[in-house]
Amino acid sequence: MEALLQNEDTIAAVATGMGGAGIGIIRISGPDAVELGNKLFVNPRGKNLLTTNSHELVYGRIVDPATKKDIDEVLVSKMLTPHSYTAEDVVEINCHGGIVPMRKILKLVIACGARLAEPGEFTKRAFLNGRLDLTQAEAVIDIINAKTEKSLEYSVAQLEGRLSHKLEELDNILVEILSHMEVNIDYPEYDIEEISYDFVNSQILELLNKIKDILTVAETGKIYREGITTAILGEPNVGKSSLLNTLLMENKAIVTDIPGTTRDTIEEYLNIEGIPFKIIDTAGIRETDNLVEKIGVEKSKALLNQTNLVIFMRDISKEMSAGEKELIELLKNRKTIYIANKTDVISGMDVEIPEPWIPMSLLEDQGIETLRQKMIEMVFEGTVSQEADYLITNTRHIQLLETTKTSLENAINTMASQMPLELVSIDVMEALEALRGITGKAIGMDIIDQIFKNFCIGK
Amino acid sequence: MTYPGGDYDIIVIGAGHAGSEAALASARIGFKTLLLTINLDSVAMMPCNPSIGGTGKGHLVREIDALGGEMGKNIDATMIQCKMLNTAKGPAVHSLRAQADKKAYQFRMKEVIENQENLLLKQQEATEIIVEDGKITGVMVTTGAVYNCKAAIICSGTYLKGRIIIGNVQYDGGPNGLFPAMYLSESLEKNGIELQRFKTGTPARVDAKTLDYSKMIIQEGDDQIVPFSFETDSIEIDQVPCYLTYTNPQTHQIINANIERSPLYTGEVVGIGPRYCPSIETKVMRFHDKERHQIFMEPEGLNTNEIYVQGMSSCLPEDVQIALYRTVPGMENVEFMRSAYAIEYDCIHPTRLKASLESKAVTGLFFAGQINGTSGYEEAGAQGLVAGINAALYLRGEQPVIIDRSEGYIGVLIDDIITKGIDEPYRMMTSRAEYRLLLRQDNADLRLTEIGHRVGLINDQRYQKFLAKKEQIKQEISRLNQVIVKPNPENNEVLKSFGSSEIQHGLSIGELIRRPEVKYHQTAVFDPERPVLHWSVVEQVEVQIKYEGYIKKQLQQVEQFKKLEHKLIPIDLDYPQIGGLRIEAAEKLKEIKPLSIGQASRISGVSPADISVLLIALEQRRRSGDLKGTDNE
């Protein structure tokens, strides 16, 4: 149902690409846009979004209303209906802090009650509200359809497929509980086991544990949203910088440079087929020094422990150095892609690096594509992160799981306050509806089917 | 040879539970109505169980009554036992069920019909519908009479090409030994109305004097009977009990040994039977771990020995039936009066109906009851009433009455069958209603009497009484929220005696009633100025206060639901032409022609993405200017 009410609620998303310039816009659209934006916005002169003029650009800061923590310096404008992109009330937050604050702000907006916009949804609303002309309608339809097709195209689908297995498990338990409850309600005179609140309670508690597990994975899933931490290692002058630059150049998806935790580290964001990679590039590596020599074995190990993926590169036209041998040793049992560079200078030689390796010549533009594919492959083989074999990245999905959890907690309270079974069923049904919001499966005859499958009833 | 039989506004074909309600409604609204039945002795006949109501079904009867239908009054007048089911659970699922004296039920309904102004009852078998330019104009019967009409309602039950199955004995027949209607099907098909085969069954009727009730468990009715009709004040009768007994391994063994003689297992029966009315052989075969199955003995009336053996429907051969019945405690010497049988019959695809129950193929032709693939007297009665009202409104040139899913079980029933389609006989269950807490049997009048009055089925006197009740409920709730109980030791002592906790500061009686353990009547001690109110008012006050939080939650859900229901879709939308709509969805939508985005979203095979595409297509259409009059909010 929720998905169908798209024109009624307030939505938000990053309106500029997550890549490119350091400035990004978070757009909030819908009836609560202004009120919602105002909750986060603090102006030094006490200006308030509720009272500023439409289309006035106001300077201020975004502050987390819960923690009072400062998030970013911003310029905010509100555009009142119908004079906005979507023809609804719109608030646009211009921030320049790069991807991390941008995501934080978006998360806050959603926490305050907005729903994450579906792909193309602003445009769709603009159309439905009469802002775009007829010829654009088809493009909008394409966007809507692309959403489903695109996710199938990519191997993300595999990991999300495993998630849907998990969700199906939850779904089955919920349907099972509901069918027990409903058969008790609809067939009061049959000699079927009377359902007890103890039973429902224990089933729901078990479900809640499973949901909490998935939500924990959602936390680890953050690495997919915020980037697969990747390090490029190798001796000085083997071509690391060129590799990095090539990767970044080929990708218009560099987000920004963010000072790292130490002055030595720079983080670069890279986006390959929709998967974000956060390249940790120690200043040392970028320059000319050997990682191990520069920061010591222990520190290197510590750094490696923070990475999900390592790209090791050596120049095969040169002899293997002691440092390289040391590094290769260090990389054993780590997710590593080995690169043999400068195949243009020398070929067919014993490259002395672990298999499988990628031959590369940056000069002749060789091997880059293979590397990109390998990086993606490693993500989806689950070889990068072993925390879980499924993935949950979609903020809307996480929101719906939270709703499922809350509804189930309500059910427990309803039982605790001795309310009758059919009221408990309202809560449990709500949980199922939220869960089905993720899988997109309608609640049709499932529960009734389950009743007739499991219980011998009927005259 | 044919001859002109006269002119009528509305003809109702079939005088079962659907037909009776349909004919009464159309005549009461003021249209000259002809009611045809294949046999005058089968008016409002109950060919299966001798009871009205039950979970979900009891709700339907109360809704029929709230709209001005007859079923509630008829069962109130002819019941021989009554029970409120599910009283251990909450008010939303309390359900009334009464045992009827079958003959008395029929006689009373026939009498009401015979004495209804504008209504003529005739024994005639309809053989053909006459359609001109896509509109119904008349009905022909076996004798050759042609009755002209402006609208017709088909309520043919299980009569169309009815086929009786008792083991390997099979013959053309209607229910309960009556003749089938062998001709009408062909006429329907000729006019573009496709048919399918459904099946249902009924157990044997046995002779009470051959039963030993001492081996069974007595099942009594309630001490205090709650009537079905909002107009019946009270019911004082000597109730007749039912009896409970069980099958045993011996019963199951006989079934196992003879299963190959069951036409259900030899594939001779093609009709699809309902899962909730499984035959005893189906139960035993499907749930072979279950050691026993319940069997209820239900009297068919006060003036007969016939006992309905609930739980033992079967289409095994008669000799096997007798043998297996005799394995049951108390039935060792049982004698059959009527054997169990299964019946196969023609019914339509209800997705080819509009929400008004009018056919999409033939204008002015309505369908109600088992012909629509439903099962049950109450489901039939509810549709009959709606079809009767809407045929009348059609003749008046007015918009049909469409009860939505948030207003009544009737709405759930009709929306389900016309939107989702059905592949087995459809029975009402409370689980089918999303807004169950709002659709209680106790508030059916509050939900629907307004509509009944508007169409002319509720007279002014009843309506005024209804408005007064509504006002009393409102006043009492507001009064209770203002009477404050002080936190003194005496009051806390009283609260403790209710098993409730003490209060620290003043609380209104309303707030006290919100506590699950506190009842309205108990709080009288705190409330010296309490007015004397009818029990039905008290019931509403208590339920509305006690479950307020949950009721509000459901009302919010309803609000969302209504938004989608109010986004209307023009009936002539060319779905296959809409770019971006998946083929499966386009086909489903084309078949069902949903009235609203809400209805479209309930069609299986239509995804949220399809709905988005649909919304865009509607907007495109609106802008190109040919979507006038559509409420697109």
Q: Features of this protein?
A:
heterodimer, A: 459 residues, alpha/beta, Gyrase A, domain 2, Four Helix Bundle (Hemerythrin (Met), subunit A), Rossmann fold, 3 domains, seven-stranded mixed β-sheet, 15 helices, B: 633 residues, alpha+beta, FAD/NAD(P)-binding domain, Elongation Factor Tu (Ef-tu), domain 3, Arc Repressor Mutant, subunit A, six-stranded antiparallel β-sheet, five-stranded parallel β-sheet, 20 helices, 18% strand, disordered C terminus
CATH superfamily of the largest domain in chain A: P-loop containing nucleotide triphosphate hydrolases
**How far apart are the first and last residues' alpha carbons of chain A, in Å?**
35 Å
Strand share of the residues of chain A?
Answer: 15-25%
What is the level 1 CATH name of the largest domain in chain A?
Alpha Beta
Structural shape of chain A: globular
CATH C-level class of the largest domain in chain B is: Alpha Beta
* CATH hierarchy: architecture of the largest domain in chain B: 3-Layer(bba) Sandwich
Counting helices, strands and paired strands, the structural category of chain B is alpha+beta
Q: Using DSSP, what is the number of strands of chain B?
A: 24
Helix content of chain A: 40-55%
Oligomerization status of the protein chains: heterodimer
Describe this structure in words.
- The complex is a heterodimer of chains A (459) and B (633).
- Chain A has three domains: 2-149, 2-Layer Sandwich (Gyrase A, domain 2), CATH 3.30.1360; 156-221 and 394-454, Four Helix Bundle (Hemerythrin (Met), subunit A), CATH 1.20.120; 224-380, P-loop containing nucleotide triphosphate hydrolases (Rossmann fold, 3-Layer(aba) Sandwich), CATH 3.40.50.
- In chain A, 46% of the residues lie in helices and 17% in strands.
- Chain A has 15 helices and 14 strands.
- Chain A has helices at 33-40, 99-111, 121-128, 137-153, 156-186, 197-220, 222-226, 240-250, 283-286, 291-306, 322-331, 368-380, 395-416, 421-439, 446-454, and strands at 11-14, 24-29, 41-42, 57-63, 70-79, 90-95, 115-116, 228-234, 258-259, 265-272, 275-282, 309-315, 336-341, 357-360.
- In chain A, the strands form two sheets. A seven-stranded mixed sheet of chain A has the order 3-4-5-6-2-1-7.
- The longest helix of chain A is centred in the middle third of the chain and has 31 residues, at 156-186.
- Helix content of chain B is 35%, strand content 18%.
- The longest helix of chain B is centred in the C-terminal third of the chain and has 21 residues, at 460-480.
- In chain B, the strands form six sheets. Chain B has a six-stranded antiparallel sheet, with no helix packed on it.
- Chain B has 633 residues and is of the alpha+beta class.
